[in-house]
Design a protein that fits this description.
By secondary structure, the protein is α/β, with parallel strands linked by helices. Helices cover about 45% and strands about 15% of the residues.
């Protein structure tokens, strides 16, 4: 555990990044852009935009990424997955991003369009994320983030394999990993220690999910194998129709989690915003991350 002066020193070096998903409707796009404009003045390290299962949001992801970087000046990272594309198609997408000034990629295996289907590599495509990372590095010197699963990916045969595979992705050229969301800090800290012992020296950035909808959280957690502590079930119980109290509980949970990680020397955080700014902005403000002037609409 760090001392108070050490924690204060760490706070001065805090870095945050934010994740959004490409909107499906005009109303959702308005919501996303209000959130981006709210969070952009906090000077995040980067803003990422997800890629739908099977590459279903390819065009909308591309449009959001390029617009974010153009209009805010913040480095934008495009999610890119192996599913549904040949190597030639993915290489062309990557070259297009590079030509448009996008230097950051979140490289993922990706999910199949039908949840529950067993993953099979796309014929003629990159088989897994490690292959995608290596391929991207051959195209250009992208800054590449990859995923990490402190509670082990549902398709991984073991926790040890999870760490071995993460090391392969880092060795292939990834600059950092971003974890799946978690709510037990000890889970992340044990995972981090094992990664360091395995020779992984790239940052392992904790993914933080402020809880905006507990029912949706349970569905997300079930799909990705993340555990939801009983305390969250208890604290969010009965709040489905009480958004104000729910937000207060969610803020308390998230800020407590982040403060705990800071006390363990963590300085970088990636927030899964779900295209909403309120909770993430409040958490950053409470951490002492204060913004510059608002980005013009």
């Amino acid at each position: 555990m760090m001392t108070v002066p050490e924690i204060k020193a760490v706070r001065k070096n805090l870095k945050v990044s934010f994740e959004f998903f490409p909107p499906k409707t005009e109303k959702m796009e308005e919501t996303m852009w209000r959130s981006i404009r709210r969070l952009a003045p906090l000077n995040p390290s980067f803003v990422s935009v997800t890629y739908g299962a099977g590459g279903t949001t390819r065009g909308r992801t591309h449009g959001s990424v390029t617009r974010i970087q153009k209009e805010t000046g913040i480095p934008a990272a495009a999610h890119l997955t192996c599913v549904g594309h040949t190597k030639e198609e993915i290489d062309q997408i990557a070259r297009s991003y590079w030509d448009e000034g996008i230097r950051s990629i979140v490289a993922l295996r990706g999910d199949l369009p039908d949840a529950g289907d067993k993953y099979e590599p796309t014929p003629g495509g990159y088989a897994y994320a490690v292959d995608l990372v290596a391929g991207l590095k051959e195209i250009a010197d992208f800054d590449i983030s990859v995923s990490a699963y402190p509670e082990t990916h549902p398709d991984a045969p073991s926790a040890d394999f999870e760490i071995e595979y993460l090391k392969r992705k880092i060795d292939a050229g990834a600059n950092r990993s971003i974890t799946q969301f978690f709510f037990d800090n000890e889970t992340y800290l044990r995972f981090r220690d094992k990664c360091v012992a395995a020779g992984i020296d790239a940052p392992i950035v904790p993914g933080i999910l402020p809880v905006t909808n507990f029912g949706s959280l349970l569905k997300f957690a079930n799909m990705c194998g993340a555990s939801v502590p009983q305390r969250l079930h208890w604290r969010f119980e009965g709040l489905d129709e009480d958004p104000d109290t729910r937000r207060m509980v969610a803020f308390h949970e998230a800020i407590s989690q982040v403060e705990g990680l800071i006390s363990e020397g963590v300085t970088d955080f990636h927030f899964y915003t779900l295209n909403r700014a309120e909770l993430t902005y409040a958490i950053c403000h409470a951490l002492g991350i204060r913004g510059t002037e608002q980005v013009a609409a």
